[in-house]
Amino acid sequence: MYAMHSIERKFKKGMSLVVSPNDRILVAVSGGPDSVVLLYLLNKYKFEMRKWPHSRSFENIKYLAKTRGASVGCEAAEAFVLVRTIEK
Fold first, then answer.
1. How does 34-73 read in b/e, with b if 16+ C-beta sit within 10 Å?
2. Is the pLDDT of residue 70 over 80?
């Protein structure tokens, strides 16, 4: 259990360096172990969610995914923006 608390502290510290309180965060979850841990850690921030019709409501997120999915011919989709490119 100590290891998870250590990871949570590091995650929180890292997030505070790159994310401001009013920023929006987009997460892609593949189902692999790294995605599951990321989802677990982000669940710690669920207090940031708001009630409909706020843009941070669960309902809005579902509608947005369906709208984006319809625009590309699938049930649900998410938009991505390249934030940084690392070249070797």
1. eeeebeebeeeeeeeeeeeeeeeeeeeeeeebeeeeeeee
2. yes
